[in-house]
Amino acid sequence: MKFRSDPALIRGSLAPVVTPFTEDGTVDLDGLRRLVRWQIDSGSHGISLGGSTGEPGAQTVAERISAMRAAVEVIGERVPFLPGTGTAKIDETLELTAAARDLGADAALVITPYYARPTQEALYRWYATVAREFPDLPLVVYNVPSRTAVDIDPETVARLFRDFDNIVGIKETTKDFEHFSRTFHACGKDLLMWSGIELLCLPVLSLGGSGFVSALANIAPAAVSRMYTLWESGDHEAARDLHYRLHPLVDLLFVETNPAPAKWVLKEAGLLDSAHVRPPLVEPTEAGLTRIRALRAAGADLLDFDL
Q: Is 2 a catalytic residue?
């Protein structure tokens, strides 16, 4: 929990690591440890688990806690750890967040409750419940309306940010870039904000963002972290050049539903033993693989492994 007392230090590229499964669908904790170690060695500034890329909805609470435990064994206090602890049920969310706290996570990433489509008042009360339960744990709101069917308004974020000292930031995973700006405008510059949209990772830094939680870090961790470092060092031209060069690999991730393409690439590279994704997802189709291979070749110079 090295960064828990000062969450503003949780900056840069926080890799949202995929959850490895064996061919029979069992969580591969040894494979997860290897991926986390590789991410840190490749320059990722932090580690996240349990966001959309980690297939949390296809796992039990116990499996998600065991994954957090395995990650912590590798991370120690070398880089920040920001696990996703939200579900569509408040009791599960509190259980997962308690586990993250007890395992030493630096902050918890709590997704807006999905499927139910709560009102803004309901979202406020949801996050207030979590914040009151864990007053000493920094909490990050996770806004991903394409997955949850609900968009948390900037004014609701600002209300939470004012009312609870431990609600410190937001992961914005919306393609509406005005939402990023309006949230900052409502909350002020002290709000921590990370982009979860790959092609908005660089733009968010220009608004004062803290970094990004990008699925692209699963296959190009060094390039993604370098983009942040270049921008922060003032070499904006080089950062922009890298942003555009990464486009083919961004497109690769979403040829079919994330994280299936990324897992296939990692398996082909020898970094995963299996590309298995749990239902309702499926591994890439033959048509998808044709496109994935072409995009992988187009961005090959930015991959962190040999083809």
A: no
Q: Which of 124, 127, 142, 228 is catalytic?
A: 142
Whether 142 is catalytic is yes
DSSP output for 98-150: HHHHHHT-S-EEEEPPPSS---HHHHHHHHHHHHHH-TTS-EEEEE-HHHHS-
pLDDT digit of tens for each residue in the chain (307 aa)?
689 999 999 999 999 999 999 999 999 999 999 999 999 999 999 999 999 999 999 999 999 999 999 999 999 999 999 999 999 999 999 999 999 999 999 999 999 999 999 999 999 999 999 999 999 999 999 999 999 999 999 999 999 999 999 999 999 999 999 999 999 999 999 999 999 999 999 999 999 999 999 999 999 999 999 999 999 999 999 999 999 999 999 999 999 999 999 999 999 999 999 999 999 999 999 999 999 999 999 999 999 886 6
pTM attached to this predicted model: 0.96
Among residues 157, 208, 4, the alpha carbon closest in space to that of 194 is found at 208
